[in-house]
Amino acid sequence: MITLYGLPLSPFYNKVKIALFEKGVNFEEVLVRPSQAPEVLQHSPMGKIPWVDINGVSLSESTAIVEWLEDAYPTAALMPPTPNGRARVRQMMSMWDLYVVPACMPVTRHRIFGAPLDDAMRADAQAAIARALKAVARLARFTPWLVDEAFTLADAAAAGALPMVELAGEVLGVDLLADLPGVGEYRQLLLRRQSVARSWSDRSAVLAQMLEQAAKQAMA
Asked: 159 and 99 in contact (C-beta within 8 Å)?
């Protein structure tokens, strides 16, 4: 049995969750926040989410987890068969994981947790997100998926990150996806996949709950 630990607000958590759905793997979810608590660090050495428990063995870092899934469950493949194709998927995953998501974090932390976000920080975040998405646009093929004719781990990473980009755009009052041609049709294609639709629905529910709690605390 696989147990997935983390929160549906995390794009990295959702990347793993989507891969699990795509693989048809039975798993359980345990909601937990990132933490430096000893009981978290023994499973995730940096205290980050997600991590998984695989029959008593812990594995952290989302890319390591999804690549383990690819090795352990080679049917319903989420990587192309060729070395070049697999490298392109890894390259695209890196664009989302290392550049798009971190650029969005100051804005989403402000929206969800009330973290400071002054005008200079807003401008810096908007510029960083735009730069990262332009890099994605240079690599994206949309044939119809990002890298290949089939849904891959690159699309799982994109599906994890896109709601975060959209939330950041709402806060900044800017259409951050305008520089990513084809993303509208691509988003609809993603939404038609059960794995993505379920992940986005669960994320929306948790986000609404957290925003409601934050509003109540602000009024108290």
From this structure: no
